[in-house]
Amino acid sequence: MDDAGLGLRSTMLDLGRKARQAASGLRAASAEGRTLALSAAARHLRSAQEAILAANALDCETALETGLPPAQIDRLALTPARVEAMAAGVEAVAQLPDPVGREMARWTRPNGLDIARVATPIGVIGLIYEARPGVTADAAALCLRSANAVILRCGSACLMSALAIHAAFEAGIVEAGLDPFAVQLVATPDRDAVGHLLEGLGGALDLLIPRGGRDLVQRVAAEARVPVLGHLEGVNHTYVHAAADPDKARAIVVNAKMRRVSVCGATETLLIDAAAAGALVAPLAKELAAAGCALRGDGRARALAPGMEAAAEEDWRTEYLAPILAVRVVDGLEEAVAHIAAYGSGHTDAIVTEDPHAAERFLRDVDSAIVLVNASTQFADGGEFGFGGEIGIATGRLHARGPVGAEQLMTYKYVVRGTGQTRP
Amino acid sequence: MDDAGLGLRSTMLDLGRKARQAASGLRAASAEGRTLALSAAARHLRSAQEAILAANALDCETALETGLPPAQIDRLALTPARVEAMAAGVEAVAQLPDPVGREMARWTRPNGLDIARVATPIGVIGLIYEARPGVTADAAALCLRSANAVILRCGSACLMSALAIHAAFEAGIVEAGLDPFAVQLVATPDRDAVGHLLEGLGGALDLLIPRGGRDLVQRVAAEARVPVLGHLEGVNHTYVHAAADPDKARAIVVNAKMRRVSVCGATETLLIDAAAAGALVAPLAKELAAAGCALRGDGRARALAPGMEAAAEEDWRTEYLAPILAVRVVDGLEEAVAHIAAYGSGHTDAIVTEDPHAAERFLRDVDSAIVLVNASTQFADGGEFGFGGEIGIATGRLHARGPVGAEQLMTYKYVVRGTGQTRP
Q1: Chain B residue with minimal CA distance to A230?
Q2: At residue B141, does pLDDT exceed 90?
Q3: Is the predicted pLDDT of residue B199 greater than 70, yes or no?
Q4: DSSP B203-244
Q5: Strand B324-330 relative to strand B370-375: parallel, antiparallel, unpaired?
Q6: Residues A11, A3: Cα–Cα separation, whole Å
Q7: Mean pLDDT to the nearest integer, A259-283
Q8: Do A142 and A244 fall within a single domain?
Q9: Looking at the 3D structure of chain A, how many domains does it have?
Q10: Which of A319, A403, B289, B321 is the most exposed place for a label (fewest CB within 10 A)?
């Protein structure tokens, strides 16, 4: 390791030590103290709006020069409204019930032992994310609410924005008298920093959360020496059932695809029942095309909407994050469920139907983190679920699944109160 | 890879495929079907008692010849009472509420979306355990209750016993008309089988649970390509506080150490407050010695009980699983908590005190999976918690902590019911 490498290593281990110490402090701090820090952070984010937008303008300039794809620039760019939404999100988290020490269950055994399952913080969390500046504030807020210390590592394309957001957030923590190292940001774009996080910072990290594309998540899952909560891509489906209400179907499909194409809850494949396809494919194709969406269909879909491009096998597995929609005509619910099982990523899938039996079968048989009936897949979001924000949508099967909010960043312990019991 | 290696690989991948298929079947099976299978398995375990004991006698003979340590032989040896306890445990699991499809939470959003968090099985679980035959039945029962398929890999020293137990259990599954591949046992002592499990059996495994010594758990955590639920050693403490009731303290300490020395909930270190040590160390030492326990103390403990061996630094970190107890005199609760944080394994720790403030501080400040007041650490057990059994005691901080029963072997999904909502 050269001098720069040794310097980075020492910097990263130092972040870990400070986070570990801050985690102890957070655990001992009162819920009120953490609420105050969150309210103060929201205030500082608002008053730092100009500085944040100026830093973001620098990031966007560099991104345009380096030719970042449009979907990524959409995720990167901030506006006054987005900064305000960020501050409002932190305020919403401040209003959430404090999860620390919450009794999740309590029961008494025949021998008189009183057993409680009590929520406790995980400890120190490392979050590796891509160039989405808003994640900085969301993640900091949720970790603070759950009394976890966090080390943030953003994509280098949003480093200037993240530094400005972090500075404002930190000012709130300091104002409330808490340890400023509760929320730390890796302040260098050096890619080797990720390697240090994967190694666990000398035992300081309890959990790593990769939030981003398949390559990042798979690298973290393969190389991490600490537990991982994976946030994989969303190859999401909306299935228009034979008994769908046509107006609802059109509104839901257009919203699920086009409301914002760069979010992980966007629908990427439309499955449409043969019984509904005749009446719906042509008007839907027209409406989507008018909204700027390109369609790639299977043979039966193309027969109903001339001019539609042909979908290749690869399209069924693709998270476009772009105004492109794959379209396939299926014969019934079972075929739709089978398609989702074969090609989906277990993120978010919806059915549109007025038939309650079909709805319940879909909800039962599709084993994704989020399954919906008669609603847009774009509701896949912690804020929309009432979590006050999210650190991402977990697509693994362990610990947490779906939107990860403060409650999902907790572990628990068993508290057993006895009166002298010994075990026979 | 030689022919034998290729053969093992193909056998293991086949186990994975069959488990994956069985998992689908289990999910579709009714709760009643799984309850029937569990009751039938308990019946078959009882009627196979002779065959199980005969197989176990072979295992014990080999173990004695190869010089297995006494604690491991204690864990290996079965008696008619232990086989009966095994069957009763399976029956207890049959009586548990079925966790599949349980609504864990449900709420309505201002926009009318009805959101439910619903428990669903994890899928296919691999369990790697040591030479404890009873784990075979416990794990099979809990996985069946939670509708997970399981692949069991036992320590080679108990393979004969495990095969006999597995055969009886499988007969119950078949009798109930369920897929016999729901519970599979790796039928070879070949150590390379573990390597295949670590690689995930071609994507078939959703979760690996290592249950055993530090070496096994650390190897699995380091090498596994699938999520891991670790079951580490129990370096457990009983802290006798200044305000302890002396009779309770004596009864609890003797039980916590000596009831069964080979279980992970056994106390390994006694911390005794300086204020209580004068009156308690000598009689406790006498009582423990009479029960066959060797003591290793720090200087202050030895001054109070002549003849006590000196403890070395290493003793504070040791899970003896033997009739040995490390003893240290501490000055107050804070020192006890600090000792546990420094040397404990986050498994199970107890305080004996009549002071409710001291009790609550200990319960809050000791961050172990199980913390107790005025009760024996040997209660660290899923059965004692009312879980009808356990697959082990998880010592990690993710997904599940403490006793892992059927409820802890579930994941969840969000079921969202709408009436046409789109996201603004």
Answers
A1: B227
A2: yes
A3: yes
A4: TT-SEEEEES-HHHHHHHHHH-SS-B--B----EEEEE-TT-
A5: unpaired
A6: 12
A7: 95
A8: no
A9: 2
A10: B289
Whether residues B130 and B158 fall in one domain: yes
Straight-line distance from the first to the last Cα atom of chain A, in angstroms, rounded to the nearest whole number: 58
Residue A142 lies in a domain: yes
Which residues of chain A does B376 touch, with a Cβ-Cβ cutoff of 8 Å?
421-423
Looking at the domain assignment, is residue A396 inside a domain? Answer: no
Can you tell me the mean pLDDT for B28-56? 97
Chain-chain contact of B418 with A207 (C-beta, under 8 angstroms): no
* pLDDT 10s digits, B258-292: 999 988 999 999 999 999 999 999 999 999 999 99
Q: Which residue, among B108, B236, B367, B413, would best test binding to A if mutated, counting the most A CBs under 10 Å from its CB?
A: B413
Nearest-10 Cα torsion for A124, A130, A134, A139: -10
The whole-angstrom separation of Cα A304 and Cα B20 is 38
Residues A270 and A327 in one domain: yes
With pLDDT > 70 as the criterion, what percentage of chain A qualifies?
100
Is A399 contained in some domain?
no
User: For B248, which residue in chain A has the nearest alpha carbon?
Assistant: A420
Which CB contacts under 8 angstroms, 24+ apart, belong to B18-21? B18/B181, B18/B184, B19/B124, B19/B149, B19/B150, B19/B151, B19/B181, B19/B182, B19/B184, B19/B201, B19/B204, B20/B123, B20/B124, B20/B149, B20/B204, B21/B179, B21/B181
Q: Which domain holds residue B16?
A: 3-231+404-416
Whole-number Å distance between alpha carbons of A142 and A32: 15
Q: What are A304's two structure tokens?
A: 């109903």
Report yes or no on A216 lying in a domain.
yes
- pLDDT computed for residue A6 by the predictor: 87
Read off the pLDDT of residues A82-109 as tens digits, 9 standing for 90 and up: 999 999 999 999 999 999 999 999 999 9
Residue A285: give its domain's CATH number. Answer: 3.40.309.10
Per-residue model confidence (pLDDT) at position A1:
65
Domain identity same for A15 and A95: yes
- Give the ipTM: 0.91
Local confidence band at A217 (pLDDT 50, 70, 90 cut-offs): confident
**Quick one: B350 and B293 in the same domain?**
yes
Cβ contact, residue pair A374, B418, below 8 Å: yes
Do A193 and A274 fall into the same domain?
Answer: no
Best mutation site among B225, B239, B378, B398 for testing chain A: the one with the most A CBs within 10 Å? B398
Could you tell me which chain A residue has the CA closest to the CA of B226?
A: A221
Residue numbers in A near B397 (CB within 8 A): 122-123, 206-207, 227, 411
Q: What is the CATH number of the domain that holds B90?
A: 3.40.605.10
Average pLDDT of the residues in A124-142: 94
**Closest CB from A371, A398, A399 relative to B416:** A371
Alpha carbon of A230: minimum distance to chain B alpha carbons (Å): 10
Residue A321 backbone zone (phi > 0: left; psi -120 to 50: alpha; other: beta)? left
Q: Are residues B206 and B246 in the same domain?
A: no
Per the CB < 8 Å rule, is B414 touching A385?
A: yes
pLDDT band at B28 (very low <50, low <70, confident <90, very high): confident
Give the minimum alpha-carbon distance from B67 to chain A in angstroms, rounded to a whole number. 30
pLDDT tens digit sequence for B376-422: 999 999 989 998 888 889 988 899 999 999 999 999 999 999 999 99
Q: Determine contact, residues A341/A367, Cβ cutoff 8 Å.
A: yes
Domain match, A292 and A168 both: no
Nearest residue of A to residue B359, measured between CA atoms: A417
**Shortest alpha-carbon distance between residue A210 and chain B (Å):** 14
CA-based nearest residue in chain B for residue A394: B413
